[in-house]
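hi got a favour to ask and not much time before my train. below you get a single protein, a line of residues and a line of whole numbers that encode the local backbone shape. could you go over both lines and see whether the tokens make sense for that sequence. a few lines back from you is plenty, here it is:
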Amino acid sequence: MRRWLLIAGLGFAASLAANEPDPKALLDRMARAFRELNYDISFVYIRDNQVEPMRFVHAYEEGRERSRLVHLNGDAREIIRDDDTITAYLADAKPIMVDKAGSIPFTRSLLDNLARIKDSYRLSLGERERIAGRSAQELVIMSPNNDRYGYRIWIDQETGLLLRSELVSDTRQIIEQWQVVNFTANQPIADVELQVSADINPATGVRVLPVAAINSDETVSPFTVDYLPSGFVLRSQQLQRKPGVDEPIHHLLFSDGMAAISVYISKTPAGIRSAERVWRRGGMTIVEKADSERRVTVVGEIPSSTARKIAMSVRASGEPL
């Protein structure tokens, strides 16, 4: 009798395991839902004890993808996307969070780099919970090292859409988060919902250019970054100039699919002594390191210890290690 009970128990456990979704398949399903479904969501974005409500409307029809991101508090700020054309309307000229495709925080970068994410992070299932009145599966995305932040995300079990995300430290402390509070999906989206609001002057729109693929034959940086966390690759490099400043600023952009790191390198202004400064806002870290020759600034959603190691590893190409 005990033998049959044991066999029955093992069979039940195997049945439960078979019903558990595969973490990588769950991420793939979220990618398809994000691109191919119609949906209208309102969500809150929380960092540094500040709450910002937003709305994101997305439509997909015959391969054409359109979306509109609206900041609901303060001066009007919106981002309109029509396939690869992205236009930002910033009434107050303040910085707005815009990733490659003008979408909700972090998701577009994640979807464009699924293969690298699966190689650079550990994926595991969490609990099934109720988010925004819907049943959601938690997915934990953590780095095997402590050199970058991790994520906890909750995916709608019915549609596959993202309902909540948390940027977390290696100790699971929440650094930033956003969560859906109102949600409709698989309904027609009227054209007016994908156009800039009537109270915004269309002439204020600024075209946002996606990061171009790097061409190693035509663009060669005069600087080398010797330390980067595993999985980060060079996405773009630019030579920037500020009005009234003779010396250019070299900008290198790295990404692992989830996080992005910008490294700015310029000549140290006269009279500036060697120094190191660190700033934090939510998950964003800024480390500035200056010596007698150059000033290096590292900006990214990474721990300050990682940003410091990157800043200290920058050297001119040809300099000894």
